[in-house]
Amino acid sequence: FVGPSGMDGAEVIDCGGKCLAPGMVDLGVKVSEPGERHKESYGSAGAAAAAGGVTTMITRPDTVPAIDSPEVLEFVRRRANEAAPVRVMPMAALTRGRQGREMAEIGFLMDAGAVAFTDCDSVVTSMRVFSRCLTYAASLGALVVGHPQEPELSSGASATSGKFASLKGLPAVSPMAERMGLDRDMAVVEMTGARYHADQVTTARALKRLARAKDAGLDVTAGVSIHHLTLNELDVGDYRTFFKVKPPLRSETDRLAAVEAVGSGLIDVISSMHTPQDEESKRLPFEEAASGAIGLETLLPALMRLHHAGHMELPTLWRAVSLAPAKRLGLEAGRLAAGAPADLVLFDPDKPFVLNRFELRSKSKNTPFDEARMEGRVLGTWVGGVRVFNHT
């Protein structure tokens, strides 16, 4: 880039014909601090984000304790500023302790810097509490991030119901549980006028309901994890717990429906849904193992799988990991423009490599892409014009 003036003495970087893009904005990153720093800290997550081309982490409040008060939020922001080389924007809990019984201090938490409110995968089952939360959030213009799932049907499930789950003998949940959860959430959004983002919409049936909500003019957006776009239920294979995520991996039909929805813009956001789990949490029988997979450092090469398979062009993919999440959260990020923050990623979309999970910077190594052949390498990452990662 050459500015109109004031460029004398500026560093010149030869990108060698590679791709330069806005840094990614990852909506829904789990950092296990406070409470479980052995799984992930702001230092390790920030290093992984920088190496993965993620310049802004939107972090989840499912910590121990939950981020449900201005005091805990202030601790998180201070730790993030001290330890992470990338920008960290925290979400806060929608209800106290993420217990679904009493609304959190949404107004005070907004004043303290919360960019959105969510109970993550702890669905607020009380319609009275949920509608009250959304009504109050709507009055403040706050964004509520929901996890569309019927909690009783999905409780204890580790797979999607169908032939594969039956063959493997895994406790399973019908894909309809996601549609039912989204039905409920959309009804409350319509009633309250709240701003709502569904963190993960992963089934064809739920996508049809999402389309109707958008057509009706509701202020709703939706996301999907990169794992649900690039993997399906068969990848679980012989009970490979690194492939156990929440919601569970879906059928190939549902995966392709989600890919198509990203391409059309029905799904707005792609996230890593970074969820670190230690070895002890994963070295258990499949149905007992913890759910979740890390994804900060593998987000870009996984995105390139979709590009190289011919599903989407790079601008379409990049909209979903940069501009769309930034716009939904009201952040000055996700674009290359005069006056915009110089949050940049330089990458080679065609660079092949075999992923070794032990080389990843996250403290936890629970990636489903271990030993996978991948294409796409981050070469450099800048935050606010400062280089925070350089591939050597």
Strand order of the largest sheet: 1-11-12-13
Beta-strand percent range: 15-25%
Question: How many distinct helices?
Answer: 13
What value does the Rg take, in angstroms? Answer: 20 Å
**Helical residues, percent:** 25-40%
State the domain count: 1
List the defining traits of the structure above.
392 residues; alpha/beta; TIM Barrel; 4-stranded antiparallel beta sheet; 4-stranded parallel beta sheet; 17% strand
Give the structure's gist in a few sentences:
It is built from 13 helices and 13 strands. It has 392 residues and is α/β, with parallel strands linked by helices.
Overview of this protein structure:
- The protein is α/β, with parallel strands linked by helices.
- The chain has one domain (19-390): TIM Barrel (Alpha-Beta Barrel).
- Helices cover 34% and strands 17% of the residues.
- The protein has 13 helices and 13 strands.
- It has helices at residues 42-52, 70-83, 106-111, 127-140, 151-154, 163-168, 176-192, 204-215, 226-230, 252-264, 279-282, 299-308, 314-329; strands at 19-22, 24-29, 54-59, 87-90, 143-146, 159-160, 172-173, 195-198, 220-225, 269-271, 344-354, 373-383, 386-390.
- The strands form four sheets. The chain has a four-stranded antiparallel beta sheet with strand order 1-11-12-13. Strands 5-8-9-10 form a four-stranded parallel beta sheet.
- Helix 2 (70-83) links the parallel strand 3 and strand 4 (87-90).
- It is globular.
- The mean pLDDT is 95.
